[in-house]
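Tutorial handout. Part one gives the primary structure; part two gives the three-dimensional structure as tokens.
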Amino acid sequence: MELRKLRAFVEVVRQGGFSKAGKVVFATQSTVSKAVKQLEDEIGVPLLDRIGHRSRLTAAGEIVYRHAIRILTERDDLVSELNALRGLKCGILKLGLPPVGSGILFAKLFAIFRKCYPGVEMRLVEYGSERLEEIVLAGEIELAASLLPVSEAFEWQDVKREPLAVLLPIDHKLSRCQSLDLSKLREMPVILFETGFASNRVIMDACRRHGFEPRVVARSSPIDFVIELAAAGMGAAFLPRMIAEQRRHLSLAWVPLHEADTDWHIAMIWRRDACLSPAARAWLDLVACGRAEDHSVND
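Part two.
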């Protein structure tokens, strides 16, 4: 059942005749008459009782007219919503961010996005990178910020690359070093984030390249608690340099980690075969602009 036939039939009823209906749908009288006849043939019963130059609805016509109005209204609503979606007047952005670094990198961008697209609902989840990758692949969210490298199942857009810093008690013998490699920490206990944080994998892999397994004495998710554990002397902790600089602690020193393949390299990722929504693409554009501004300031 074609929408154009329903539209022609509805306008014949509304306008009270085929000629006036034709002017509304931009068709000739004969074209409108043919469309209504085809609709009647398709349904199998007359819809209009034609009396001279006038027509009135049959019982079947009353039913079809009522449903046709609803169908055409829903079609118009559908088109309006899609146009609004393309224009980002509505929609949903499903986004995942890790707890580490998101405040510094994305809080300002959130505020800008909300100001630019107030009709777009932002749904945020917060997990470690490994969990975020899982739910992106499952289709639960469109985009996530995750540490590189990621598998070939994802496409990605660069956000920020930072060296890691080692957090040590201020009176530790290594706290005055200009930089450290992980071999110097072979005998020292370490504090990691909870399972599912990709930064753990970076540290573990680097230690194994030096031929040892680190002695993990604690795991936590909140950054502040990891910092306090390190300040209490439980072990060495690791944070991106920009976060270590921001979260200075009177009892702690931070030393740059001089180690290959241990940079905290964060990117926005999405499923390789995904058809991203206009809201998701707008977010990626905003992140790219923010990164460009960051480079401009640093330069």
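Part three, for discussion. Residues 59-86 form the longest helix (28 residues). DSSP finds ten helices and twelve strands in the chain.
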